[in-house]
Design a protein that fits this description.
Elements lengths: L2 H23 L19 H10 L9 E8 L6 H16 L1 E8 L4 H10 L6 E4 L6 H7 L7 H7 L1 H6 L2 H7 E2 L2 E2 L2 E2 L8 E6 H6 L8 H13 L10 H7 L2 E3 L10 E4 L8 E3 L4 H16 L15 H5 L4 E5 H14 L5 E4 L16 E4 L6 H13 L1 H9 L6 E4 L3 E4 L23 E2 L6 H14 L19 H11 L3 H5 L6 H15 L1 H20 L2
Parallel strand pairs: 1-2, 1-3, 15-16
Antiparallel strand pairs: 3-13, 4-5, 6-13, 7-11, 7-12, 8-9, 9-10, 14-15
Length: about 525
């Protein structure tokens, strides 16, 4: 019997148990899986949604039209793929789903406007820190998800998602998102053209100094190295990580994720490393490592690499691999490969709330929206469509749990913000028939990371709730635009003067109130973890 069939059968048992609990005593108050995530049961949307209907938990007699927001850009075949998904949703849940996208270039400014403007929609991708989770909860934009609500309308999800993920999603004790279930590494890398590495005599990019030297070599040759300043690579090289819920998607306050004994929060304008980075990055910008017009650009992260305008692209390992493959298909002579600028460091595994989906508090169809999310998360047919596209056109099955790409250019593997419902228990793995050097580089890097996972830091799961300082938080966010992006991209005349002006602006906005509240919450969080 194949793995996927076993998973479906496993959920049938799990769902029956869940429905029994609902009938007997309502909310269970939590699962007993030790929080490890290792003893989960895979889901099938078919059995899960059927169980809900049989239990009388939702009336689907009236047809409803739902709307979801995702991040990124719509691919050419997206509507065709989601037409197939809607056929399943129509048959099973008597509903249809339309999808709008917030592009990478606009989501920072437009995400909150969906809620302040009371936009009519039901589901939306969210993520801790970088994907507006904490900020939107503070604005009152997400519908709080009780355990009973999840168990009733998404029993398959309840069975799959580990207890630790629900705990990570809690803000002031309440869950506001469905977290994804997959291990992701919190490490950006660089997809880089090997022809240029060879041209400039660079054998590796394994440290900040290596990265800077390559960038300067590109600039000396009249080639842009990237589409902007490598701020993440600098602070990651220093052992730092963003703090969940802090301003600017966590970037304004860092913590030393490589030292579990260090529980200090580093406001970057109090940290010597920020000034050091800004001075180095101005040198790089002045040399021509990226366009002077970068702050006005609407380009997506991959555009520079795919068009040949830049020598590389910085992103997570999956995205770098995906767009590296596309670049190599279109320009084999580039021989794009992968490099890790902080290869010596143990790797951080992201919290499960690094990707997820929330329900708009103003949705008029919250129950049906949750049932639809259950289909995306646990129905293998819907899952494959959203991740891979149409079988026979974009991909073909290899055995029970692998896939082979037929056409990746018009839909793309995991290129359409399906990450909010990542579910490792039913996700197919790619079968690579004709392996390339890029495939080998990806697998070798992934294997090295798996063998070198860093110890947990207490702040890896911490998320700041800005509700008590929402006015100051908003003022700080508003003040960032005039200073932060120019500084981290080296586009200022005088670094020391700009940092001083930036610091004064944030002091006036109330950054010290924000920091005091954050440090108070962090101390309470640490105490609660030490008490467990």
């Amino acid at each position: 019997m194949g793995k996927r069939m076993k998973k479906v059968l496993a959920l049938l048992l799990g769902t029956a148990m869940t429905v029994g609990m609902l009938a007997g005593c309502g909310s269970s108050g939590g699962k007993d899986n030790g929080g490890s995530g290792t003893e989960t049961v895979a889901g099938s949307g078919e059995s899960a949604s059927a169980a809900g209907s049989e239990a009388g938990t939702a009336d689907t007699s009236e047809h409803v039209e739902l709307k979801m927001y995702l991040l990124g850009d719509r691919t050419p075949d997206f509507d065709e793929v989601y037409g197939k998904i809607n056929e399943i949703l129509e048959e099973k849940l008597n509903c249809s789903l339309s999808v709008d996208f917030l592009s990478w270039g606009e989501h920072e400014t437009k995400y909150s406007l969906l809620f302040s403007g009371q936009e009519d929609f039901d589901l939306i991708f969210t993520a801790s820190s970088w994907g507006h989770y904490e900020q939107t909860v503070a604005l009152g934009g997400f519908y709080p998800l009780s355990e009973e609500f999840i168990q009733t309308y998404a029993p398959g999800i309840w069975e799959v998602v580990p207890e630790v993920a629900w705990d990570q999603a809690r803000i002031d004790g309440q869950i506001y998102m469905v977290p994804n279930y997959a291990n992701e590494f919190g490490q950006d890398i660089i997809a880089v053209r090997s022809d240029l590495l060879e041209k400039y005599g660079v054998s590796q990019i394994a440290s900040w100094d290596d990265l800077k030297a390559f960038y300067m070599a590109c600039a000396a040759d009249g080639m842009y190295a990237s589409q902007g300043g490598p701020w993440y690579q600098y602070f990651q090289a220093e052992g730092m990580s963003t703090t969940g819920g802090a301003p600017k998607s966590g970037e304004l306050v860092l913590y030393n994720t490589q030292d579990s004994s260090d529980t200090k929060l580093y406001y970057i304008l109090d940290w010597d490393g920020f000034a050091d980075y800004c001075k180095q990055v101005k040198e790089m910008a002045d040399a021509g490592c990226w366009s002077q017009d970068v702050l006005n650009s609407n380009n997506e992260r991959q555009d520079g690499l795919l068009t040949g305008r830049t020598a590389g692209m910085i992103w997570n390992i999956g995205s770098c691999n995906t767009y590296g493959k596309q670049a190599n298909e279109e320009h084999p002579e580039w021989n794009v490969t992968l490099m890790d600028p902080v290869s010596s460091q143990p790797k951080k595994v992201q919290p499960y709330i690094n990707n997820g989906v929330a329900i708009n508090i103003n949705s008029e169809n919250k129950e049906r929206a949750m049932m639809v999310l259950n289909e995306f998360y646990t129905n293998p047919d819907v899952y494959d469509l959203a991740m891979l596209g149409i079988e026979g056109k974009h991909w073909e099955a290899v055995g029970d749990d692998q896939y082979k790409v037929i056409d990746e250019s018009n839909y793309g593997v995991s290129s359409n913000c399906n990450w909010g419902w990542n579910n490792t228990t039913i996700q197919r793995e790619e079968y690579i028939e004709n392996r390339t050097a890029l495939d080998d580089a990806h697998d070798a890097m992934q294997e090295a990371w798996e063998a070198n996972i860093k110890p947990d830091h207490v702040y890896d799961g911490f998320n700041f709730d800005s509700t008590k300082v929402s006015t100051q938080f908003a003022a700080v966010e508003a003040a960032l635009g005039n200073y932060y992006d120019p500084l981290v991209n080296g586009l200022v005349e005088d670094v020391d003067k700009s940092i001083a002006e930036f610091s004064a602006a944030l002091e006036s906005a109330g950054i010290r109130d924000v920091m005091a509240e954050m440090e108070s919450q962090a101390a309470a969080y640490v105490a609660s973890k030490q008490g467990n």
